[in-house]
Specification:
Length: about 80
């Protein structure tokens, strides 16, 4: 707590946003790899194209939502800094 304001929430939100963004990007990456290799006859496990497409969209939405969390946490931190500067 700094000068009566808890800055832990903004840093926690920022961390959660970054973590969520990274998870979303990884989900998109994996879905892209799966979709690009779906027609490979040498692949051991068949790919469910519908599931991979859903994972691609889901990962993209997670990354977008997490980016908004990061932006909001950044704005909160900026406001705190401006208040005490």
């Amino acid at each position: 707590m700094t000068n009566g304001i808890d800055t832990g929430n903004s840093s926690s939100a920022f961390y959660a946003g970054v973590q969520g963004y990274n998870q979303g990007v990884e989900q998109v990456r994996q879905a892209t790899v799966d979709l690009s290799s779906a027609n490979n006859p040498n692949r051991e496990n068949p790919i469910n194209i519908n599931q991979s497409a859903v994972e691609l969209i889901s990962g993209n939405l997670q990354a977008e939502a997490s980016a908004k969390v990061i932006k909001t946490a950044d704005g909160m931190l900026g406001t705190i800094i401006d208040t005490f500067a």
